[in-house]
Amino acid sequence: MRNLSFVESKPLLTMSLMLALAFLCASVSFAADPMEHTTNQFSGAKVNKGTATLSHKEGQHILTLSNDFVDPATPDSHWQVVDGKGNVYMLHKLSIKGDKYNKSIVLPSYIPSVAKVQIWCAFAETLLGEASFKEPVMLGMMK
Known about the structure:
Shape: elongated
Order of helices and strands: HEEEEEEEE
Number of helices: 1
Strand content: 35-45%
Distance between the termini: 53 Å
Radius of gyration: 23 Å
CATH topology of the largest domain: Immunoglobulin-like
Strand order of the largest sheet: 1-2-3-6
CATH class of the largest domain: Mainly Beta
Structural class: alpha+beta
Number of domains: 2
């Protein structure tokens, strides 16, 4: 068996390092899921903590509230989204039985984009808090 001299093994070493670097870069780029978009922090009369994340899983668009979100504990609070054209869609009730709330919802297929996520009190007809994406997220593009 022949031993490679340093001069002969240098191209092999360079190629190995380049491959390792390529794999490292690829793994870093997959760590941040491009199919997830997160809003800024909620701001409003009753909701001032947490964010919402929009993701695409198994063919569905899902909005999820962050762990630091605090339920406003108001009567009849709902999820609400505003699309890129300003159309407002009242969705699921936020509060559910007991001290629990719907942390995630599946968006209906008729919503074309999401610019803002709002928490709306249907009883008092009042906006409790709102969080925005940097730019409207086109749901048809998230597949």
